[in-house]
């Protein structure tokens, strides 16, 4: 039987950074489900399809093939066979992902891939509905959050390091809007699973959060 760790939480909480670290230190696979939604979003953007039009999205999905590969232990996202890992990190794609993720047909498309990875590997999987919906039997569930100001400041720092100028207010507004969409959709909304450990990382370093989660693992 595999050991699965589910990490859910809002945008910029530190999920991917922490999940990658914990997975590396435990020799588990890190599965980034947000990247899968982002890949579908990129496919829709390329086709010029609006996520607000569910019927159009559903009709386009068969032409949007999403698969993953691992290169040097890093998850790579393939869209119709093309490695798009470097193209899915923009705010435009993130916002489109959040809108598309509210559609049942989009979630359905990724369900089997996510479940199968956890069935066959020890994983640290992060997203919005992993503990509540995808891996309800996960041995450890974490709900990782931080204040909106902290999360926006982290995102701003990331963008500045890449040389991309951006206003703090715009980033904060985008984050709040995306959280709102993710928490209030009908299907698989972002919420803490009843048996998840709540962790507010606003005043915690990456090392501290990693150690805390590792201390909860009972392999
Ligand atoms: O995956 P998610 O959107 O939840 O967040 P992330 O991309 O892992 O983290 C956003 C930024 O916050 C990254 O630049 C991390 O290095 C930083 N971070 C931090 O400064 N302190 C933490 N305790 C966790 C993340
Ligand atoms: O890195 P960040 O936290 O900004 O977002 P992400 O994890 O890359 O996810 C992008 C979007 O995909 C989220 O805003 C969610 O709407 C959606 N998503 C989801 O609905 N369910 C998941 N398990 C993962 C992501």
Automatic annotation (TrEMBL):
InterPro entries: Cytidylate_kin (IPR003136), Cytidylate_kinase_dom (IPR011994), P-loop_NTPase (IPR027417). CDD domains: CMPK. The keyword Membrane does not apply. GO terms for biological process: nucleobase-containing small molecule interconversion; pyrimidine nucleotide metabolic process. Residues 5-217 form the Cytidylate kinase domain. Its EC number is 2.7.4.25. GO terms for molecular function: ATP binding; CMP kinase activity; dCMP kinase activity. Keywords: ATP-binding, Cytoplasm, Kinase, Nucleotide-binding, Transferase. Its main location: cytoplasm. ATP binds at residues 9-17. It catalyses: CMP + ATP = CDP + ADP; dCMP + ATP = dCDP + ADP. It is an enzyme of class 2 (transferase). It is found in: Cytoplasm. It comes from the Bacteria. One of its GO terms (cellular component) is cytosol. Pfam families: Cytidylate_kin. HAMAP family: Cytidyl_kinase_type1. Belongs to the cytidylate kinase family. Type 1 subfamily. This is Cytidylate kinase. It comes from Marvinbryantia formatexigens DSM 14469.
């Amino acid at each position: 039987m595999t050991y699965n760790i589910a990490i859910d939480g809002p945008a910029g909480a530190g999920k991917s950074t922490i999940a990658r670290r914990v997975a590396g230190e435990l020799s588990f696979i890190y599965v980034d489900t947000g990247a899968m939604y982002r890949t579908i979003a990129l496919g829709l953007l390329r086709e010029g399809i609006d996520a607000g039009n569910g019927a159009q999205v559903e009709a386009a999905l068969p032409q949007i093939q999403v698969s993953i590969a691992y290169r040097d232990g890093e998850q790579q996202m393939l869209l119709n066979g093309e490695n798009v890992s470097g193209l899915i990190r923009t705010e435009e794609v993130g916002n489109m992902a959040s809108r598309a993720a509210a559609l049942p047909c989009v979630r359905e498309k990724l369900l089997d891939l996510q479940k199968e990875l956890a069935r066959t590997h020890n994983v640290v999987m992060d997203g919005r509905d992993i503990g509540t919906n995808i891996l309800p039997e996960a041995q450890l569930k974490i709900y990782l959050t931080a204040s909106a100001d902290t999360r926006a400041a982290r995102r701003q720092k990331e963008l500045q390091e890449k040389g991309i100028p951006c206003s703090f207010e715009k980033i904060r507004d985008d984050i709040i809007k995306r959280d709102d969409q993710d928490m209030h959709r009908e299907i698989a909304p972002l919420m803490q699973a009843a048996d998840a450990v709540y962790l507010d990382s606003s005043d915690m370093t990456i090392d501290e959060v990693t150690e805390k989660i590792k201390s909860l693992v009972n392999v």
